[in-house]
């Protein structure tokens, strides 16, 4: 059977098409959440783009997202490189989706999705621990276990993945990735703070 015939059969299979569309959509939604969290994190916590008088300061980056990524002392150059990889796949999916539904989703989708979740989890937990907890009186005098924080965006993605992908294997994979990525990073960071 030739490749075009196989692609056509996959494209016309309702279950395969629906699953691929759901995976691509979930990735794009997760990316948009990440982008929003990065810019909001920059605005609210680090005042990216503002000088000491609260006025707009020139940035070396034209993009608010990249300015926030690069100016955050909590994020590394590796995080920026990771964001670039995640963004590249998002652009491929968003701009070439009809073709990708016919020819198949990129093989790197699962790996980039995990990378995206790691960034999202890291930024959300940093914001919680460094900006929200210190300013919320209900946490006064309490020791906060950073590893125990489950960001709202991760919870939201878990709910979306379950609703969109259902309960089959694709849903199981993405929901497990949502949990695994968040739990692994929390455990890793918890180990670092114990040392």
Q: Could you give a quick summary of the protein structure above?
A:
The protein has 195 residues and is mainly α. It has seven helices and no strands.
What does it look like?
The chain is mostly helical and about 200 residues long. The chain has one domain (about 5-195). Helix content is about 75%, strand content about 0%. It contains 7 helices and no strands. Helix 4 packs across helix 5 and helix 5 packs across helix 7. The termini are far apart. Residues about 45-50 and about 55-60 have low confidence and may be disordered.
Give the strand tally.
0
Strand content range: under 5%
Structural class: mainly alpha
Element-level helix/strand string:
HHHHHHH
Helix content percent band: over 70%
Shape: globular
Sequence stretches where pLDDT stays below 50 over 5 or more residues: 45-50, 56-61
Give the end-to-end Cα distance, rounded to a whole number of Å.
57 Å
Total number of helices: 7
Average pLDDT works out at 74
How many domains make up the 3D coordinates?
1
Largest sheet: none
Determine Rg (CA atoms, Å): 19 Å
């Amino acid at each position: 059977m030739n490749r075009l015939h196989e692609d056509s059969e996959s494209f016309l299979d309702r279950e395969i098409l629906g699953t691929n569309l759901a995976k691509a959509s979930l990735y794009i939604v997760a990316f948009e959440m990440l982008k929003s969290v990065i810019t909001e994190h920059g605005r609210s916590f680090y005042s990216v783009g503002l000088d000491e008088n609260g006025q707009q300061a020139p940035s070396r980056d034209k993009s608010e997202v990249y300015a926030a990524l690069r100016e955050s002392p909590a994020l590394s150059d590796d995080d920026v490189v990771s964001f670039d990889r995640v963004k590249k796949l998002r652009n491929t999916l968003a701009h070439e989706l009809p073709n990708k539904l016919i020819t198949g989703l990129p093989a790197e989708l699962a790996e980039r999705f995990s990378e995206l979740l790691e960034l999202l989890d890291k930024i959300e937990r940093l914001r919680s621990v460094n900006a929200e907890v210190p300013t919320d009186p209900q946490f006064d005098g309490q020791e906060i276990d950073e590893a125990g924080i489950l960001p709202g965006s991760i919870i939201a993605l878990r709910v979306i993945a379950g609703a969109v992908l259902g309960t089959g294997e694709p849903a199981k994979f993405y929901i497990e990735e949502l949990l695994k990525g968040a739990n692994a990073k929390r455990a890793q960071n918890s180990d670092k703070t114990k040392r």
